[in-house]
């Protein structure tokens, strides 16, 4: 893992209301629902049904009871978002041992009782088994994220750095970091060379933007190169960037670095949990792939089984002027810098969106590649498509909304439950029979 931090661990809590001493439970639930419906685009509310009444009765209450001030009552036992559950950030409660992304994911898979294998380097492939034995499919996310590496110890006692993955130093300025030396961890901050207006005046506004223009100021008494050497700093030390997650429950916004692609991993685990807990039948085996080298361009190569015929990648979809993606919808990425995605698979995803009332946009990205491109380039003859959750301001000031993650989750759920796209795909090579058609135009007759 390049960055050892978990972006934000989200757990669902069953919905609860707290008394005011003057409102009835019916009024409190209505108020809760108004707030949650606004935050989740109308997805999360406490229904007025037998289960809610049962929970209230257990507490000796009913809809007309006036709840005492400060008393909190859980009104549903389940923590399903659709029945009013809320999502809480529990990052601070996770033990440090769980913070390594691959470990975190494998723990989640253990809890869900989903079998998986881990490659030598830490990519994970898990399997949700289905009824059919051919035509396996995969859904892929990446666990790695952007970071940096110490390139040189400087005579001023600071560290020169180089990026890991593609990102601008402009978005690194100000980031809190951890530097991993051979024996120890040090905290620090990435700052511009001219970081003080009191000293440099207007020159701070004209300093160019590049990785040569920033340095890491470590929180250790280092005033020269020898001090750095004494503390064990060295070229090649990894630098992890703090994500600073912040989840706004009211509006549904999630601010954090590295949402790309930690949010995708969270969506995939959530899909897995829904399938496991509901006992939904899958038509064919679905492999959940968690890769570890996407940001440096390697991606989903070593974790692809031979029998995988198609793969959906979940990754970020950038919102910006001129783009169609939003922080509230799922995005079907039609093309990225590696070329168009599979025509038929994308058409199928559009159909699934329409059938399941999933809000989606189509978009194209010019400076973007994903696990799908790596898989194809590595020689996999599979259909691929890319489903995105909206991310504003990648990489550095990333923000998404729970609504977008929800749309992606619903689409992936519909996809893994759908029938195989083409039966003919079960054979690597075959005759032209069953080969899917794309639309053709009518012959053009030119009069001469
Ligand atoms: Zn990504």
Task: Please characterize this protein's 3D structure.
The protein has helices spanning 25-39, 50-58, 101-111, 197-200, 203-206, 225-231, 259-278, 343-355, 371-377, 402-417, and strands at residues 10-13, 16-18, 72-74, 86-89, 116-118, 124-128, 132-142, 147-153, 159-164, 176-180, 185-192, 214-218, 238-241, 246-247, 253-255, 284-291, 308-319, 330-336, 339-340, 360-364, 383-392, 399-401. α7 crosses α10. It is built from 10 helices and 22 strands. It binds zinc ion.
In brief, what are we looking at here?
The chain is an alpha+beta fold and 448 residues long. It has three domains: 10-87, no CATH class; 100-145 and 257-426, Aminopeptidase (3-Layer(aba) Sandwich), CATH 3.40.630; 147-241, Elongation Factor Tu (Ef-tu), domain 3, CATH 2.40.30.40. It is built from ten helices and 22 strands.
CATH topology (fold) name of the largest domain: Aminopeptidase
Total individual domains: 3
Oligomer: single chain
Heterogens: zinc ion
Secondary-structure content class: alpha+beta
State the helical fraction: 10-25%
Low-confidence stretches: 1-11, 88-99
Supply the number of helical segments.
10
The 3D shape can be described as globular
Described by strand count, sense and barrel closure, the largest sheet is:
9 strands, mixed
| Text of the CATH class of the largest domain | Alpha Beta
Task: Report the mean per-residue pLDDT as an integer.
Answer: 87
CATH superfamily of the largest domain: Zn peptidases
Which architecture of the largest domain per CATH?
3-Layer(aba) Sandwich
Question: Terminal Cα separation, in Å?
Answer: 66 Å
